Amino acid sequence: MVKHSGTEPDWFRRVSVDAVDLTAAERRSTVYKGVMCLILRKGARDFLTGQKADLHTCQDDHIFPREVYRHDHQVDIILNRTLISKETNNRKRNKRPSEFFKECLEGHDNDESRLLQTLETHFINKQAYEALMRDDFDQFIRHREACIIKAISEVSQGIMRRPSI
User: Fold this and answer.
1) pLDDT grade, residue 80 (50/70/90)?
2) Which of 27, 61, 123, 164 registers the highest number of CB atoms within 10 A of its CB?
3) Residue 76 three-state SS
4) How far is CA 36 from CA 28, 30, 33, 141, 143, in A?
């Protein structure tokens, strides 16, 4: 067993959450993979049903569909991506978020608080949801970015406080 001294390396103490580039679009990037891991860690639930996602069949997909928004927005960034089931992805296709998330609300028995609980597992808070319902890409990205930065900060603070082994 490797003993941990309790002292983080200098480079780790110099890392700033603010320096994390959440405009990563390359699926092989560390930031991209890290955010997907945070979504998994949060317990990603299916948008349509609220059921726990099957990690073996999830697909990495755009929240604002690429085919609809690619000419006006930087849609491939991690802030516009999440893990959803193949079935949900097939139902979503190229629907605008306002249309698709109305279906998701119906799948949660029209209980907005239940849908919001599901969306929280994807770092989509109430303000980001409201932006989805207005098809407002920029506001959605702004609110989701704040949620993800908070999660990164919480994880990094947890690492810094980890007791010595």
Assistant:
1) very high
2) 123
3) coil
4) 11, 10, 5, 16, 17
Residue pair 7/161 in contact (Cβ under 8 Å)? The answer is no
* 115-145: pLDDT as tens digits: 999 999 999 999 999 999 999 999 999 999 9
Tell me, rounded to whole angstroms, the distance of Cα 129 from its chain centroid. Answer: 12
Tell me the C-alpha distance between 101 and 39, whole Å: 19
- Of 100, 25, 23, which is closest to residue 68 (Cα–Cα)? 100
- What gap in Å lies between CA 27 and CA 77, rounded to an integer? 9
| Residue of 149, 90, 154 whose CA lies nearest to 123 | 149
The gap from C-alpha 147 to its chain's centroid, in whole angstroms, comes to 9
Taking the C-alpha atoms of residue 70 and residue 94, their distance in angstroms, rounded to an integer, is: 12
Residue 141 C-alpha from the chain's centroid:
10
Which residue spans within 14-117 are E strands per DSSP?
A: 58-62, 81-85
